[in-house]
Design goal:
The protein is of the alpha/beta class. The chain has 14 helices and 10 strands. An 8-stranded parallel β-barrel has the order 1-2-3-4-5-6-8-9, surrounded by 5 helices. Bound molecules: (3S,4R)-3-hydroxy-2-oxopiperidin-4-yl beta-D-xylopyranoside.
């Protein structure tokens, strides 16, 4: 057990520290043995990892930390490895949020999905305004991103299982900028300044910094969720070409942000299998299923039937992953409705997670548990 970066946090995290200390002193105790019917224990039987995004602040809540350690075998920082959080002031790198999560993961025998290195969103203001006002030239921008990728991936070297190296580069039907011929968005911040080759460079730089991490391309609506499968077709053709060009890409992450109003995307298994057939790993990286709710406090669905649809879509999404041998992890984008990103981003929607606002498991949780039980043990043989 190794905690590289000592925790420098206040009294509020006593519970977490107690768990951490217990795990350090006695590796086989406490959360070292998650409940046998937990998602992580059931999934472990078939070599799958079940993960969640985490807001490190929530680790202060003992109930939250207990569920996190018991149920999940991978964690992803919701925001703490994004450039905006890591380098809010140019030249001053702050990895403390990510370090804290890595320490929790090590103490609870979890792996970490690093998220995310190159994305158009959540960039530091000094960077975007410097580019906008011309004080950062494109050549300098290229050097800055090379340096940043090297610094970040090196800092977490050996501690990250999968890195989302490039995030959300493909065009959507609702974009204002047109797609490039291969489907990448011409309006993407990185592509418009540095050309689409910056994506391949990001993978090369990340690989140089941590050759053992699995490097993922991550995006939403790339397993048929757009209805037409056009985005999936584009990513498939692109990644096939990248592999032919020797770009070190190990996997494709489908975010899996679903909405009950659109129904379940029927192509998901085939699309995941198609990426896998290229020799890639695949993963569901940010699963949630939102629906319209009465208010953000209770997040009770406006239509009672939506609760069933929500649980159904979670189950279908997990089954798509289970059906594909190369699908190595199924990660939900936070597990409790209280800290879901959905109400703040999709007006009027919520109820997207597998635990409710009070951290009680919802029907979706029990669906996942049942699916994993069947995957792990099969259906019990009939007795006559
Ligand atoms: C979201 C976080 O959950 C929010 O807290 C933040 O304000 C915005 O970003 N796709 C991604 C994630 O790849 O990084 C996003 O996370 C959700 C959409």
């Amino acid at each position: 057990m190794r905690i590289r970066h000592p925790l420098t946090i206040g009294a509020g995290v006593a519970a977490v520290l107690a768990l951490t200390t217990a795990a350090l002193a006695e590796p086989d105790s406490g959360s070292g043995h998650p409940p046998r019917d937990s998602l992580r224990a059931l999934a472990a039987k078939i070599g799958l990892r079940v993960g969640t995004a985490v807001i490190p602040f929530d680790l202060n809540n003992a109930n939250y930390a207990q569920i996190l350690g018991d149920q999940f075998s991978t964690v992803t920082p919701g925001n703490e490895m994004k450039w905006q959080v890591v380098e809010p002031t140019q030249g001053v790198l702050d990895f403390s949020g990510g370090d804290r999560l890595v320490a929790f993961a090590e103490a609870h025998r979890q792996r970490v999905r690093g998220h995310t290195v190159l994305w158009h969103n959540q960039l530091p203001t000094w960077l975007t305004s410097g580019v906008a006002n011309g004080t950062i030239s494109n050549d300098q921008l290229r050097d800055l991103v090379h340096q940043y990728i090297t610094d970040e991936v090196t800092h977490f070297k050996g501690e990250i299982w999968q890195w989302d190296v490039a995030n959300e580069f493909f065009a959507n039907s609702f974009d204002s900028a047109p797609p490039l011929p291969d489907g990448i968005s011409s309006g993407d911040f990185w592509v418009s300044h540095l050309g689409e080759g910056i994506i391949a460079d990001a993978f090369r730089w990340a690989h140089a910094a941590d050759p053992r991490a699995l490097l993922f391309y991550n995006d939403f609506n790339i397993a048929g969720e757009d209805g037409t499968n056009a985005k999936s077709d584009a990513v498939y053709a692109w990644v096939k070409q990248q592999l032919a060009d020797g770009v070190p890409i190990d996997g494709i992450g489908d975010e899996g942000h679903l909405d009950t109003q659109f129904g379940f995307p029927t192509q998901m298994t085939q699309d995941l299998q198609r990426y896998a057939s290229l020799g890639l790993k695949v993963a569901i990286t940010e699963a949630d299923v939102r629906t319209f709710v009465r208010d953000t406090a209770t997040q009770a669905p406006t239509n009672p039937l939506a609760a069933y649809a929500q649980a159904y879509e979670y189950s279908q999404m997990l089954k798509a992953c289970l059906a594909v041998r190369q699908c190595i992890s199924f990660t939900v984008w936070g597990f409790g409705d209280a800290d879901s990103w959905i109400p703040g981003t999709f007006k009027g929607e919520g109820y997207a997670d597998i635990y409710d606002v009070n951290l009680n498991p919802k029907p979706a949780y029990f669906n996942l548990q049942q699916d994993l039980t069947l995957a792990a043990f099969g259906a019990p043989n009939r007795t006559r």
